[in-house]
Amino acid sequence: MKRLLFRARQTSEQFWFIPALMTLAAVMLAALGIELEERHGLPPELTFIYSGGETGSRSLLSAIASSSIGVAGTVFSITIAALSYAAGSMGPRLLDNFTRDRGNQVTLGIFIATFAFSLWTLRSVQGGEDAPFVPHYNVTFALLLALGCIGALVYYLAHVTRNINMTQVINLLRDDLRVALQRATEPRDDQSAGAPPPDTFWEGGEVLRAPAGGYLQQVDTGALARAAAEAGTVVRLLVRTGDYVFPNTTIARGQPTLPPDMLEHLTLGDGRVAGQDLEYSARQLAEVAARALSPGTNDPMTAIDVIDRFGDALCTLKDRRWPSGLYQEGGQLRLMLPTSDFAGLLDTMFRMIRQYGADSPAVTVRLLEVLGQVGTCLEDPGRRQVLRRHADLVLEDALRVTENSGDRADLQARYAACCRQLGGAAP
């Protein structure tokens, strides 16, 4: 069931989905308007309804249909070209945001629905003396749709201009990362599921091999734990969400057996998706920073903005902990999953920035400052130790390529302040 909902949500986010629904609704509305006027005619008291003849209505509907589809094609083709250019510096996530944005989908839907409504109405216009028919209701509504297209065009131009702004993209990715962190962690006062069994426990159990390759996009943990309980077995998943699964490799073990139809609870796909994959959301922001630090772009301010957003997201973990990956059903352990941890998250966030930004003192200094400030929020000694490790790596890489004595002094000063904030002294 969870896989079906996952696929349905992915389908609903496709660029064509909302326009297709709006087009279908427009055709049905056009047919309803024609049927209503054929049966009941046009009441004389409705003076605001279009009252022209066959020639005028045909010309008006033709103009609305041609202009709506023409403007839509021209504007969206130019926008895609602009987005493709911008995505070269910010990464392919920008195009993904564009196609999934509801505002963009509704705007395209308005243009296409206006075209479909006008075209469907146009076919019902009849001239001559035998049985002339002009769908006055539909022509009036087509005029209103044309006005709506003008408003949608103005909104769309402003909306797209704002969405390709670098700060807006970074803030959007920051929001995605916050949501992913909330999903991946749990409050500190939650009860632990107990200690995991030793590795020898899994010896001799049934093995599950991947039937095909792809990224593990989702695990239905609740259904899988219940299936293991019904089968009287314990399952250990060897890959975590976001890992690429190679065909015929071992991805799970069961003791003593595996529950039937276990693959029904695992969703494989061609790409990584946000949701259960925490590191995917962090990697998107890190990619923006890495591209900004490339010699062809040379935009350290964008990298500094990304570092600030990483610090923002990490400080939300103050009262949260990482789950154990152990799931019980009926008071007994039934499922064991590999999970992300704080060290892995920081590697995803800061490794590429540290490597590509080592020769930029502005970036490394800000990175040391953020690591120290995050340490004041996260009081756990283990997390502070991980932060200290990254501070040590940043200083080592930066001093190796920084020759200016003033910059080296700034780095040493920021590193010493970072160590004090992390509860230790600089070596």
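(ticket continues) Second input and output from the same batch:
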Amino acid sequence: MNPKLDDLHPYPFQKLAQLFEGTQPPEQAHIALSIGEPKHPAPASVLDTLRDSLADVARYPATKGLPELREAIATWATRRFNLGTGNLDPDTQLLPLNGTREGLFSFAQAMLSGTPDSLVVSPNPFYQIYEGAALLAGAQPYFVNSTRNGGGLPDFSSVPAATWDRCELVYLCSPGNPNGAVMGLEDYRQLLELADRHDFVIAADECYSEIYHPEVEPPLGMLEACRRLDRDDYRRCVVFHSLSKRSNLPGLRSGFVAGDADCLARFLRYRTYHGCAMPIHHQQASITAWNDEAHVQANREAYRAKFDAVLPILAPWLDVARPEAGFYLWPRTPMDDETFARALYNEENVTVLPGRYLSRTSDGVNPGENRVRMALVASQEECVEAAQRIARFIERRTQNGSI
């Protein structure tokens, strides 16, 4: 057995199941705000393509993917992130993935040296794949508390130079999970300067980039920042995107990685052995998805409507604010976050995720403590009902003195 498996923490939802042991929620319908699985309808055109291309299961897919898929992705990314024609080569600077989760994990296995003193720097709170990828690649995770910008962005200025010298890979998440914070151009400039000085690679998880308020500027991506900073080769930089959140297709397992051609050449070699080529009918469906923006705009409007409906209900009872992007709320809780989540489930049959399950103690602080993550992925009616139950729960607890 690989002894590194023993270093892995239980996944957040395993912890949540353990937390709920012995509870007896009321018989009213359960509403889950705990997992970020989109529930909006999948685009009909994508499902049609998927069905019409099922005959392609008779063919082995290539690890590098169909040229038509890479071209569709490059066209989308160039338009979305203002990269300029010809500045993202679909043959050398882009690979399809079976979703960002698979790519974020396997990228670390390909990039890291495995030496005992190597580090992977991660924001805190974080997506747990970052930690698991580091540990199973033989590195140690180093967590940077997200204390900048009102508790949203990782404070990379707090990291000692000696730590950067040991760093081989940095994971970013912008827009952030769970706080929705978005990195700006100066944030990228400072991190890129550190990468050049200390020789590490940056892996930017941008799977929430298309969920933002329809009337504001789209979140800045790392490749776009590179272009604006005259780094046309995207040296040391790769970005990960997915159709799961953008297009409500979490079960399609389709995404891509793009950026530094040297990194991706090494990653392609790894993936050829890994055996993770995307099925051809999934590739065909993905082409349809990347070529259409109408369903993405409708998706944004649906999330905007849910935030508009839910926040006025919760604001009198919780310290909560609309995120810059993404579909999570990240409120402070009036009691311990585990106690809040367990009692809310037991009394109102609503599940939220304790913030401490998404973070680790770093510099004596666990930045997820006394917060919970709420994913507004269900229907607007269910999200409103959940907010009303949460408000009722807090009001009742306030009145009986248990808060």
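Agent notes: The radius of gyration is 21 Å. The first helix runs from residue 12 to 19. Closing as not reproducible unless the customer responds.
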